[in-house]
């Protein structure tokens, strides 16, 4: 079981973060959000919700394809997967492996964290129209299209920069949050049972 996390008291990564912040692309984010909110809804039990989840998985797979196919060239080890659920809409996970502390050629600075567990950045991909969940329009721009768009942009910048984290880093897009945190609960249970959390 990982040890308790101790939050850092000083900001130590500003030299890495600031250049990335300057590369945030609002037009790219707008294009993504426009497409993501164009589905009739993203209700986790509807065909539209499944289509939206499948589209997001294809988008993330395309975004990561070069680093997935060429880990030696890019210096990153990245995987993309769907977590299937009984209700049809899958959750999505992108895993970025930590750099090997034993390899001298890595240029990363040592981490101030313990090296235990995984850091997760997440959002939920579903939306709901409470009056008509299956057929009603529910673009979900603010719940949680904005969170999905922001995390996609963060992943994009990390992939483009070739960032290799000191500890494993994952991006999660959960299914069925609107149904009662169902997707994230399943993944948390899987991770707890496998010793990740």
Automatic annotation (TrEMBL):
Residues 112-189 form the Peptidase M28 domain. Its cofactor is Zn(2+). Keywords: Aminopeptidase, Hydrolase, Metal-binding, Protease, Signal, Zinc. GO terms for molecular function: aminopeptidase activity; metal ion binding; metalloexopeptidase activity. InterPro entries: M28_fam, Peptidase_M28. The keyword Hydrolase applies. Its EC number is 3.4.-.-. It holds the Pfam family Peptidase_M28. The keyword Oxidoreductase does not apply. Gene3D superfamilies: Zn peptidases. GO terms for biological process: proteolysis. It comes from the Eukaryota. Belongs to the peptidase M28 family. M28E subfamily. PANTHER family: AMINOPEPTIDASE YDR415C-RELATED, METALLOPEPTIDASE M28 FAMILY MEMBER. This is Peptide hydrolase. It comes from Caulochytrium protostelioides.
């Amino acid at each position: 079981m990982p040890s308790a996390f101790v939050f850092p008291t000083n900001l130590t990564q500003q030299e890495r973060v600031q250049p990335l912040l300057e590369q945030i692309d609002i037009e790219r984010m707008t294009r993504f959000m426009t497409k993501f909110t164009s589905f009739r809804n993203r209700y986790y039990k509807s065909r539209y919700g499944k289509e939206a989840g499948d589209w997001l998985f294809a988008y993330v797979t395309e975004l990561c394809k070069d680093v997935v196919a060429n880990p030696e060239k890019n210096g990153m080890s990245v995987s993309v997967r769907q977590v299937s659920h009984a209700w049809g809409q899958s959750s999505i996970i992108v895993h970025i492996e930590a750099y090997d502390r034993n390899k001298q050629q890595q240029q990363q600075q040592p981490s101030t964290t313990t090296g235990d567990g995984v850091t997760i950045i997440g959002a939920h991909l579903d939306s709901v129209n409470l009056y008509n969940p299956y057929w009603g329009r529910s673009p979900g721009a603010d719940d949680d299209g904005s969170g999905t768009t922001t995390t996609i942009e963060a992943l994009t910048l990390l992939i483009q920069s070739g960032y290799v984290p000191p500890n494993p880093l994952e991006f999660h897009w959960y299914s069925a949050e609107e149904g009662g945190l169902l997707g994230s609960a399943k993944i948390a249970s899987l991770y707890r049972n496998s010793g990740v959390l």
